[in-house]
Amino acid sequence: MSTPLRRSTEPPPVRALHLGLGSFFRAHQAWYTHRADDDWGIAAFTGRRADLARTLEAQDGLYTLITRAADGDEFDVMRSVARAHAAADHDAWLGYWASPAVRVVTVTVTEAGYLRDGAGRLDTARPEVAAEIAALRADARAAVTSAPARLVAGLLARRRADAGPLTIVPCDNLPQNGAALRAVLGDAADAVDPSLTDWLDEQVSVATTMVDRITPEPTDVDRRAVRTATGVDDRCPVATEPFSEWVLAGGFPGGRPAWETAGAVLAPDVTPFEDRKLWLLNGAHSLLAYAGSLRGRTTVAEAVADPLCRSWVEQWWDTCAPHLDLPDDDVARYRAALLERFAHPRIAHSLAQIAADGSQKLPARIVPVLLRERADGRLPEAAVRVLAAWFLHLGGAGAPVKDVREPELRPLLDGALSDAAPRVLAALHPALGDDTDLVAAVSSCVVELGSQ
Ligand SMILES: NC(=O)c1ccc[n+]([C@@H]2O[C@H](COP(=O)([O-])OP(=O)(O)OC[C@H]3O[C@@H](n4cnc5c(N)ncnc54)[C@H](O)[C@@H]3O)[C@@H](O)[C@H]2O)c1
Ligand SMILES: O=P(O)(O)OC[C@@H](O)[C@@H](O)[C@H](O)[C@H](O)CO
Question: pTM for this structure?
Answer without folding.
Answer: 0.96
